[in-house]
């Protein structure tokens, strides 16, 4: 069948496409035909705006979209050819350093990354290298480094410890300590501990870990043992929420033990994926031998990243939002998201089947579970399936180790979920709960995999 401009697009060679997906075609295809094929593949995805499982930005305004289209060809790492984009990157991390209360932004250092996962790995690498230098200077072994964190950490930390040969020491969360708060920390740290990770916005529930309490516990440990252990704050979400919604909360560089902070520009930073940021409180906390140097504008630009060629457009989009919104605009946007989260959590918490695990008053994320013995007809997995039929993607999954028997659902409220949309969601939510409650017999007990990969 010919691929001819005069042939209607669906009568071209598209019917043969299913047999040739995994090999390169012998002949070229008209761009309109190729576009239609890829466009139709994407039709089978869910609606990103209705995906309440993801933290990742799914909407930007028309000016941002235009800027994106104008700059998607810029390579962030090519600072010689794109010196203005490199300068914008510098502006952005300095803005974040000030936002996070660095004592002297001129003595801080930071970089953009492809996401907060890469940013976390850079923070972990700086910890490991700094620890190695200190141990060698003392004539001690650099074998068996360990990193201490909550059992509820994001999977990027498991990757870091696996890839860079660091022992992962997990402090379990439980009913008494639903978040890592420093309790029992002395039993997990030793002379080989390169650092402690604190999470501003646990992905399972949206709750903050109390960084100040963790730092205070490490102060006590140092007084008793001499172990001077730094903190990296994984602020993938909360580092772009707390400064605007909870400005008095001490979690950032106001705590001297916090050496580095990471965040996702593509989450509550408001930028399309993928963009992350990491900032060190002082230049000395980023070991010099991890930094590569390139020249631009006749000067010297330090660069520290795992990836080399990567998009520069998202960095420009971040700067656009910093200029467009300012502090007041971000505060309004983040408070609006939190207001919607609290509206939804209250509405769900008032329903008989459910008990809230969190309320959306930290980051605009909350989770709930079913009350014990409410029903044997359905589970949260069934409710997730029913909502998916309406277009809403709301995952059900178990909590981490020691709480894995607790099944929860979670909603992530982003700026593009308006109160009007939230009210529509609640209408569908109540209808589906009513449908499940009216079942004459239990739903089939199909084997399920958790619908959550944070």
TrEMBL record:
<feature type="region of interest" description="Disordered">
    <location>
        <begin position="1"/>
        <end position="23"/>
    </location>
</feature>
<dbReference type="InterPro" id="IPR002129">
    <property type="entry name" value="PyrdxlP-dep_de-COase"/>
</dbReference>
<protein>
    <recommendedName>
        <fullName>Glutamate decarboxylase</fullName>
        <ecNumber>4.1.1.15</ecNumber>
    </recommendedName>
</protein>
<keyword id="KW-0663">Pyridoxal phosphate</keyword>
<dbReference type="GO" id="GO:0030170">
    <property type="term" value="F:pyridoxal phosphate binding"/>
</dbReference>
<dbReference type="InterPro" id="IPR010107">
    <property type="entry name" value="Glutamate_decarboxylase"/>
</dbReference>
<dbReference type="InterPro" id="IPR015421">
    <property type="entry name" value="PyrdxlP-dep_Trfase_major"/>
</dbReference>
<dbReference type="InterPro" id="IPR015424">
    <property type="entry name" value="PyrdxlP-dep_Trfase"/>
</dbReference>
<dbReference type="GO" id="GO:0006538">
    <property type="term" value="P:L-glutamate catabolic process"/>
</dbReference>
<feature type="modified residue" description="N6-(pyridoxal phosphate)lysine">
    <location>
        <position position="267"/>
    </location>
</feature>
<comment type="similarity">
    <text>Belongs to the group II decarboxylase family.</text>
</comment>
<dbReference type="Pfam" id="PF00282">
    <property type="entry name" value="Pyridoxal_deC"/>
</dbReference>
<keyword id="KW-0210">Decarboxylase</keyword>
<dbReference type="GO" id="GO:0004058">
    <property type="term" value="F:aromatic-L-amino-acid decarboxylase activity"/>
</dbReference>
<dbReference type="GO" id="GO:0004351">
    <property type="term" value="F:glutamate decarboxylase activity"/>
</dbReference>
<keyword id="KW-0456">Lyase</keyword>
<dbReference type="GO" id="GO:0005829">
    <property type="term" value="C:cytosol"/>
</dbReference>
């Amino acid at each position: 069948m010919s691929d001819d401009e005069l042939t209607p697009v669906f009568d071209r060679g598209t019917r043969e496409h299913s047999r040739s997906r995994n090999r390169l075609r012998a002949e070229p295809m008209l761009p309109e035909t190729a576009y239609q094929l890829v466009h139709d593949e994407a039709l089978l995805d869910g609606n990103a705006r209705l995906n309440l499982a993801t933290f990742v930005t799914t909407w930007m305004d028309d000016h941002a979209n235009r800027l994106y289209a104008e700059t998607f060809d810029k390579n962030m790492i090519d600072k010689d050819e794109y010196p203005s984009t490199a300068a914008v990157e510098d502006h952005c991390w300095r803005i974040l350093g000030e936002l996070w209360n660095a004592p002297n932004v001129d003595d801080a250092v930071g970089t953009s990354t492809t996401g907060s996962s890469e940013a976390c790995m850079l923070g972990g690498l700086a910890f490991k290298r700094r620890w190695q230098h200190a141990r060698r200077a003392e004539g001690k072994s650099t074998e068996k480094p360990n990193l201490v964190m909550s059992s509820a950490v994001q999977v990027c930390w498991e990757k870091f410890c696996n890839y860079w040969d660091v022992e992962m020491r997990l402090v379990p969360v439980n009913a008494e300590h639903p978040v890592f708060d420093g309790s029992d920390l002395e039993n997990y740290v030793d002379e080989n501990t390169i650092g402690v990770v604190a999470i501003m916005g646990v992905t399972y529930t949206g709750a903050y870990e109390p960084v100040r309490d963790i730092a205070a516990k490490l102060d006590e440990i140092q007084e008793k043992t001499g172990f001077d252990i730094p903190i990296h704050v994984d602020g993938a979400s909360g580092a772009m929420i707390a400064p605007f919604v909870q400005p008095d909360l001490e979690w950032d560089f106001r705590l001297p033990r916090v050496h580095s902070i990471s965040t996702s520009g593509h989450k509550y930073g408001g930028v399309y994926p993928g963009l992350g940021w990491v900032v060190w409180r002082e230049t000395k906390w980023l070991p010099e031998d991890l930094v590569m140097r390139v020249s631009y504008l006749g000067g010297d630009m330090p660069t520290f990243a795992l990836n080399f060629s990567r998009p520069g457009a998202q960095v420009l989009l971040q700067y656009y939002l910093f200029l467009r919104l300012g502090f007041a605009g971000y505060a309004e946007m983040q408070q609006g998201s939190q207001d919607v989260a609290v509206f939804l959590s209250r509405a769900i918490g008032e329903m008989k089947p459910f008990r809230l695990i969190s309320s959306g008053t930290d980051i605009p994320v909350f989770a709930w579970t079913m009350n014990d013995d409410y029903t044997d007809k359905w589970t949260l997995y069934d409710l997730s399936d029913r909502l998916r039929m309406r277009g809403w993607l709301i995952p059900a999954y178990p909590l981490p180790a020691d709480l894995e028997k607790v099944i929860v659902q979670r909603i992530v409220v982003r700026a593009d979920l308006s109160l009007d949309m939230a009210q529509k969601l609640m209408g569908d939510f109540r209808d589906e709960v009513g449908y499940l409650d009216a079942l004459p017999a239990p739903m089939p007990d199909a084997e399920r995999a958790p619908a959550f990969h944070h």
